[in-house]
Amino acid sequence: MSEPVLARRRIILTRPREQAEALADRLRAAGAVVFIHPAIAIAPAADRSALDAALTRLAGYDFAAFVSGNAVAYALQNVIELPPALICLAPGPGTAQALRDRGAARVLAPREQFDSEGLLALPELQAVAGRRVVIFRGDGGREQLAETLRARGAEVELVSCYRRVAPLEEMPALARRLLEDQPDAALITSSEGLDKLLASLSDAAVAALKALPIFVPHARIAAHARASGCARVITTAGADAGLYEGLEHYFREPLTHV
User: Fold this and answer.
1) What is the rounded distance in angstroms from the CA atom of residue 149 to the CA atom of residue 125?
2) Distance between CA atoms of residues 76 and 82, nearest Å
3) How confident is the model at residue 206 (pLDDT cuts 50, 70, 90)?
């Protein structure tokens, strides 16, 4: 009986730890050796006043967009029940499921392109003049969703509910992992996360990271990784399933990716 494709492959996950565990478990079940070294840590917003004010007005919005699972977790951690008429917007299936788990009755999400562009292509978001939209996000998030909805005539409010910080305490262990443990691949799920790694690791560790196959879930992140000097960048489908399938396909036929 042949060995599973991912058996003994040493894979670095750089997501925040609480988001990495499900994929890590699946990879370990396939025989991979998984190391979790977050490039970004998620913390509550430094000032909750705007968030608390928006939550008191939830019933007054037509749409509430949540840019990620983190936005769902941090925006709704003290919300007992969402207004039944509120239409929640999610950029992908993971965020959509997180909203349903919190009791959201009406959730819209793209079926194919899991990002702001996919969300903006939904028929329900084409004629939004005069509609009220709140976008829950982290500090310094992308502006495209808000700008496009405003251009279509919507009244848009941006609310920060979490912030991203560099977990500097993780960097020495990650550097040792890169230099001593001969990993086979790294998964990087945001351009900001890659930037934090490149800024925080030693020169030798950065060189080792850039030489690895880097798996990313979006073409935008792939372009950023290549521009940052990563030599082998593999774009997968989104969510955990897409990353897993991308790894499996790559290690089944690595020569096709050279």
Assistant:
1) 8
2) 9
3) very high
As a whole number of angstroms, the distance between CA 179 and CA 172 comes to: 11
Cα separation of 49 and 55, whole Å?
Answer: 10
Alpha-carbon separation of residue 2 from 5, 181, 185 (angstroms): 9, 25, 22
- Same fold yes or no, 10-40+166-257 and 43-164: yes
Residue 248 has pLDDT above 90, yes or no: yes
Residue type, 139: D
* 232 strand-pairing partners: 213
Q: Determine if the pTM surpasses 0.90.
A: no
Architecture of domain 10-40+166-257: 3-Layer(aba) Sandwich (3.40)
Per-domain residue ranges of the chain:
10-40+166-257, 43-164
51-55, 63-67, 217-221: the lowest-pLDDT one: 217-221
Structure tokens at 4: 């599973």
Give CA–CA dist 150/15, Å, rounded. 31
The rounded distance, in Å, linking the Cα atoms of 84 and 196 is 39
Ranges of beta strands (E only) in the chain are: 10-13, 33-36, 41-44, 63-66, 87-89, 106-108, 132-138, 155-165, 185-187, 213-216, 232-235
The CATH number of 43-164 is: 3.40.50.10090
> How far, in whole angstroms, is CA 130 from its chain's centroid?
30
